[in-house]
Amino acid sequence: MITKLAVAQVLRVSTVVLFSAFAVFAPVRSIAQSAECQVQELVRQQEAVAVFRRLHLEIGTLMQAQSEAILEVDHDVVISSLDDGGFFGPTGFLGKRMDKGQSEIKSILIAGRRLKMDDEAVARMDEIEASADEIIAVGHKMVTLLGDGQTKQATALYARSSVPAQVAAVGAAYTMSSGLERKAKLMSLKCR
Questions:
Q1: Which site among 76, 104, 127, 161 is 20 to 30 Å from 110 CA-CA?
Q2: What does the pLDDT look like over 19-62, one tens digit per residue?
Q3: How far, in Å, CA of 170 to CA of 42, rounded?
Q4: Which domain of life is it from (predicted)?
Q5: Region of residue 44 (left: phi > 0; alpha: psi -120 to 50; beta: else)
Q6: Architecture of the domain spanning 40-190
Q7: What is the per-residue pLDDT across 139-176, written as a single tens digit (0 to 9) for each?
Q8: Would you call 48 exposed, middle or buried from its count of C-beta atoms within 10 A (0-12, 13-18, 19+)?
């Protein structure tokens, strides 16, 4: 007859064999995952998404500064300047914001160009840079117009030049960031 001691010994041996099998097959499973899972590529995708999102945000900030300057001059109210370290007036704040925005966009573009990106992403970055340069140039022209009290001309310039440039820049940034996010999500499924 089989004794309780024999049963316990068989259970111990089978448990050891079972855990040994897991120990042997676990590395095989992780090797199979790592062949399809490219963590560095996933990190690169997320960094590129961050670059395009920051560009999108900075373009929006420039546009907000321009529209606030028009409102401030037209309605003689202060909306923007107080949170930037002091009162510069609507045109002073707009000029400072355009300079700061130009610096921010250039640094974001430099960081983005250091990343390994495909040709489409590089072309989109160039498109965003051209649109941002247009928005900044319009902002500087608006400083002069608003300083002279020519609100209607500044508003027309804003609508004729800044808005189309914003649409192009934001469209390019959104298209790239959403496409890169989609690729990153598909890659992350392989790493589970």
A1: 161
A2: 555 555 544 445 445 566 788 888 888 999 999 999 999 999 99
A3: 24
A4: Bacteria
A5: alpha
A6: Up-down Bundle (1.20)
A7: 999 999 999 999 999 999 999 999 999 999 999 999 99
A8: buried
